[in-house]
Design brief:
homodimer, Helicase, Ruva Protein, domain 3, Dna Topoisomerase Vi A Subunit, Chain: A, domain 2, 7 helices, 6 strands, metal-binding (chains A, B), DNA recombination (chains A, B), zinc-finger (chains A, B), Recombination protein RecR (chains A, B), DNA damage (chains A, B)
Chain lengths: 198, 198
C-alpha cells in the first residue's frame, strides 16, 4: 500500500532487499531518511552516487575498492611477509584487516565449492589463486569452518601441492572472551588438543 | 579501518545511521550493494535521487508524500466520513492505511508531549490540529499507549473541548492472534472490562 507515492514505495522495496532489513525496517529506514533529509538522505544519496561511480573489483585479488589493483595489492609494504590469506568473501578480508593481522595480501575466492549447489572449481577464483601462488612463501586458507569451506580448503591444498608455498589454515579454539559452556564439542576437543604452554 | 576506500567507508557510516542497521549490518549491506551493482546499487541510487527531489511533508496533515497537500488530504472520497485520526508519527499513519481503516483523514503530531525532554505543545503539531478540528465530526486520538502518548491525548482532549467534534481513542484489548499468557495485566483487565457479546 503506497501511502507516500511511488518514489517512496520503490525506495522501501529496494532497501528491503539489503541484508538485515525487511519490509518493516525498510519502511522505518525510509521514514528516518525523509525526516532527516538534509543530514541523512541527501548525504546518502550523494555517497551512493559516488560509490556507483568509483567502486570496482580488484582484478588481482577480488577485493572491492576504488582502484584496481586495490590499495592492498598496490601496497609495496605488503610484499615482504610473503603471506597470502585466502578468504571466501570480501567481508572476511575486511574482518581480517580490522583485526590488524599485519602486512599480508589476500585472495578472495568469491564463494566455496558446493557440488549440491552446482558450484565447481571454475565458478570461484581458484585458477587466479594458482596463478599467483608462486609469489608467496605461505598461503593461509582462512575459509569458514563449514563443510563447504573445508572441502574447498582440501581441494585448494591438493592443487597447491608442488607450488613451493607452505599451506596453512587458521587455528581452531576457544574464541577470546568466549565461555566454554556455550562451545560445541568439536571446538573444545580441538582447543584441548592444540593447547599451549602458559 | 577503511578497506575499501573513503567512498565505501562513508557509505557504511551513513547506512549505519538508519534504524535497524548498525556498523556491522551496514557493512554487509554495502557489500551486497557492491556485489549487485546493476540490480541493486544503481537502482537504489536512482530511487534515492528521485526521492530527494520529490518527497515533501504535507502542509495540512504532516504526512510524507510527493505532493502537498498529500494524496490522502487531496482525496475527495475521504471527506464524507468526517473522521480525523490523530497519530504521533507518519509510520503510524502508514500502519493504519495498511490496516485499511477506511476513507478517513489523518493528522500527524510529529511527536508527543514530554516535559522531561522539553517537548511542549508548541513543539508538536497541536495548533494546526485545533485549526482544522472543526472540519470533522469525530477525532480519534490514535496515539501510542505510553505515558507520554496518554498525556498528549489528555492535553488534546482538553483543548478540543467545545470544538463540537466527538473525541475518541482506540480500544485496548487482546491483539488478534495474541496469547493471553504473554499479555500484561493492564491490557487483560481492560480487555475484560470492555468485553463484547458474541
Amino acid at each position: 500500500m503506497a501511502s507516500g507515492g511511488p518514489e517512496i514505495e520503490q525506495l522501501i522495496q529496494l532497501l528491503a532487499r539489503l541484508p538485515g532489513l525487511g519490509p518493516r525496517s525498510a519502511r522505518r529506514a525510509v521514514l528516518q531518511l525523509v525526516k532527516k533529509k538534509e543530514q541523512l538522505m541527501i548525504p546518502l544519496s550523494a555517497a551512493l552516487d559516488r560509490a556507483v561511480e568509483a567502486v570496482r573489483s580488484c582484478e588481482v585479488c577480488g577485493n572491492i575498492d576504488t582502484m584496481s589493483p586495490c590499495s592492498i595489492c598496490a601496497d609495496p609494504r605488503r610484499n615482504d611477509s610473503g603471506m597470502l590469506i585466502v578468504v571466501e568473501d570480501v567481508a572476511d578480508l575486511w574482518a581480517l584487516e580490522r583485526a590488524g593481522v599485519g602486512a599480508v595480501k589476500y585472495h578472495v575466492l568469491g564463494g566455496v565449492l558446493s557440488p549440491l549447489d552446482g558450484v565447481g572449481p571454475e565458478d570461484i577464483s581458484i585458477e587466479a589463486l594458482l596463478g599467483r601462488a608462486h609469489e608467496f612463501r605461505e598461503i593461509v586458507l582462512a575459509v569458514n569452518a563449514t563443510v563447504e569451506g573445508q572441502t574447498t580448503a582440501h581441494y585448494i591444498t591438493d592443487r597447491l601441492a608442488g607450488s613451493g608455498a607452505k599451506v596453512t589454515r587458521l587455528a581452531h579454539g576457544v574464541p577470546v572472551g568466549g565461555e566454554l559452556d556455550y562451545l560445541d564439542e568439536g571446538t573444545l576437543s580441538q582447543a584441548l588438543r592444540a593447547r599451549t604452554e602458559i
